[in-house]
Amino acid sequence: MAMIEWFDDLAIGMQFRTGEARITAPEIKRFAAEFDPQSMHLDEVSAAKTFFKGLAASGWHTAAIAMRLLVESRPFGDHPIIGIGGGVSWMAPVRPGDVLYLEGEIESLTPSKTKPQGTVGMKWTMYNQHGQAVYAFTPMTIVPRRPGA
Amino acid sequence: MAMIEWFDDLAIGMQFRTGEARITAPEIKRFAAEFDPQSMHLDEVSAAKTFFKGLAASGWHTAAIAMRLLVESRPFGDHPIIGIGGGVSWMAPVRPGDVLYLEGEIESLTPSKTKPQGTVGMKWTMYNQHGQAVYAFTPMTIVPRRPGA
């Protein structure tokens, strides 16, 4: 991916894969205590009595880990990853010990008519170590055009 | 909102408002260091040179604060807030010192045909202390039906 740097280097159907992140029970509880204080995210014993039947990460914790994997994988070279929005889906619980990674595909490319940039539509799917899809994000992001393009 | 507890208590057009949360520069940097390590979120001097022209919270930090405000406001009584997904939009930067709150409206109500629950579609918009919309989330959430309904 080292040669991809500008909007003009991208093509519909191009695929990406990030590195991996392992999530632990203390991380799940710490994030939840600050941002999503509900039983299924806070404590194994209480979580066992919920819909999730065991400790599960907050969906926003999962989304935040996905962002870290994205930033580390630099899909657009050194340019910042600036998202204007998108759709999130949570398909399966993320459990302590899970090892997560993302696969991405470019679905749309729209050059701006007025600015030296374009909007990139992607679908990122996060999988666990069993190959089960746990989360998806379909962001629209802004990527600069190659100078002179 | 104390009388709202079950799917059957909800009506399209019903409105909600959460409490407020103030965000600080150390919080912005701490979240970013863990989940979104990009210059605009990490350091005032570097951030001044970016598109954001100053320190701004990671969009996922903003989303996580919105979740905490939601959980604290208990829009569905004591039932857990279980989201299956939705759309996120970031409209304006969230800055150190901003005081944020959410306003919500029920947009759709779909009873399950097979389970004692329904899917609630809402639009939550987060505003800062200037009344400027900074973030929106349109989640689909699962809420149980009143026993016997």
TrEMBL record, chains A, B:
It holds the Pfam family MaoC_dehydratas. It comes from the Bacteria. Residues 12-123 form the MaoC-like domain. InterPro entries: HotDog_dom_sf, MaoC-like_dom, MCH/BMMD. This is Bifunctional protein PaaZ. The lineage of its organism: Bacteria, Pseudomonadati, Pseudomonadota, Alphaproteobacteria, Hyphomicrobiales.
